[in-house]
């Protein structure tokens, strides 16, 4: 059985009369690399800050498995906040090395780990530069290197890939996936849903402070992809009036790019009927049954406002 390292029970966070987080229950186990997905203001940073202990929830508890916390929470968690937290008056090396010292690691080992973290984030060439002389993306790399330098058992990373190039983002996520595979755990947020889909094995979807889904990522994709979803190429653009008319016949049309559309058919509608329905308006040049990616499914959900 998977062993939970973290259990969040009935967490709420209220600002004035507005809930940023509303009664969230969640557990994270070793081996899991968990994607936290939600739009701006959904409550992702609030949830991370509460788990990291830098923000008090209005109610509820965050419990770590006691056997998991070896010395102190700080050394077993690697937390990177969304906003940049750095020692602005030191150089890159000292910033990252300080992360190892804060985690209580001895100097010699700390130096080895610092070098590894600099290599992972590809910033060894910047190690003597003061951090205030770096670009935003370079500063972001320093922040991540500092958060993960001690190779903790639990990585808690709030939008770590913002400002990173594609290679570095993939390299980082691939490292995190390997860490999870070795019995550690990762909880990571990002707006790059393709990246999360590639590397994560569990999904937590939140909206307006509430969890809409928490579970296996692949299962989410399998279960929520509409059964009758097609990618369709047509011979001319489909106007809003035609889209509205098809909607009344239970055919949902979502524009993708130029002459490509997603058609979602009601269970009762078959392809023959679809061709009959659309014939007066446009010609279907190609039609392919679709399996949706996390990004598609999320956008689909955002358009409909519900997960069916
Ligand atoms: N200090 C604060 N005072 C009042 N409301 C706040 C405060 N901090 C956050 N909020 C509100 O709490 C909600 C959740 O914010 P949070 O930063 O957790 O969202 P998020 O999912 O991380 O968003 P983003 O993707 O933009 O980073 C938002 O409605 C936000 O406006």
Describe it.
This is ABC-type Mn Zn transport system, ATPase. InterPro entries: AAA+_ATPase (IPR003593), ABC_transporter-like_ATP-bd (IPR003439), ABC_transporter-like_CS (IPR017871), ABC_transporter_ATP-binding (IPR050763), P-loop_NTPase (IPR027417). Belongs to the ABC transporter superfamily. This protein is α/β, with parallel strands linked by helices. It has two domains: 4-218, P-loop containing nucleotide triphosphate hydrolases (Rossmann fold), CATH 3.40.50; 226-290, Alpha-Beta Plaits. Helix content is 36%, strand content 28%. The chain has eleven helices and 13 strands. It has helices at 44-52, 73-76, 92-102, 107-120, 136-148, 166-181, 193-199, 217-224, 240-248, 271-278, 294-304, and strands at residues 4-15, 18-29, 33-37, 59-64, 77-80, 154-158, 185-189, 202-207, 210-216, 229-234, 251-257, 260-265, 284-289. The strands form three sheets. A six-stranded mixed beta sheet has the order 5-6-7-3-8-9, with helices on both faces. A four-stranded antiparallel beta sheet has the order 11-12-10-13. A three-stranded antiparallel beta sheet has the order 2-1-4, covered by helices on one side. Strand 6 (154-158), helix 6 (166-181) and strand 7 (185-189) form a beta-alpha-beta unit. Helix 3 crosses helix 4, helix 3 (92-102) runs parallel beside helix 5 (136-148) and helix 4 packs across helix 5 (136-148). Adenosine-5'-triphosphate is lined by residues 15, 20, 38, 40-46, 82.
């Amino acid at each position: 059985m998977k062993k939970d390292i973290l259990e969040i029970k009935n967490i709420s966070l209220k600002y004035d009369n507005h809930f940023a987080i509303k009664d969230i229950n969640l557990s994270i186990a070793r081996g899991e690399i968990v994607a936290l997905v939600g739009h701006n203001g959904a409550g992702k940073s609030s949830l991370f800050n509460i788990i990291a202990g830098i923000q008090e929830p209005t109610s509820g508890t965050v419990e770590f498995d006691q056997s998991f916390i070896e010395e102190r929470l700080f050394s077993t968690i690697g937390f990177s906040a969304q906003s940049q937290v750095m020692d602005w008056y030191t150089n890159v090396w000292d910033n990252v090395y300080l992360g190892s010292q804060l985690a209580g690691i001895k100097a010699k080992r700390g130096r080895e780990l610092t070098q590894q973290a600099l290599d992972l984030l590809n910033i060894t060439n910047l190690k003597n530069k003061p951090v205030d002389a770096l670009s935003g993306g370079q500063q972001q790399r320093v922040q991540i290197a500092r958060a993960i330098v001690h190779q903790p058992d639990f990585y808690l990373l709030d939008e770590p890939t913002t400002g990173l190039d594609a290679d570095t983002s993939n390299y980082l996520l691939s490292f995190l996936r390997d860490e999870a595979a070795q019995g550690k755990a990762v909880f990571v947020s990002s707006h790059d849903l393709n990246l999360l889909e590639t590397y994560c094995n569990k999904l937590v979807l939140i909206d307006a402070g509430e969890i809409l889904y928490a579970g296996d990522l692949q299962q989410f994709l399998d279960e929520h992809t509409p059964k009758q979803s097609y990618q369709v190429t047509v011979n001319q653009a489909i106007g809003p009036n035609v889209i509205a008319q098809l909607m009344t016949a239970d055919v949902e049309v979502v524009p993708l790019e130029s002459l490509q559309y997603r058609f979602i058919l009601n269970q009762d509608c078959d392809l023959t009927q679809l061709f009959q329905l659309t014939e007066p308006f446009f010609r279907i040049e190609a039609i392919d049954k679709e399996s949706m990616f996390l990004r598609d499914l999320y956008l689909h959900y955002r358009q409909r406002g519900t997960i069916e």
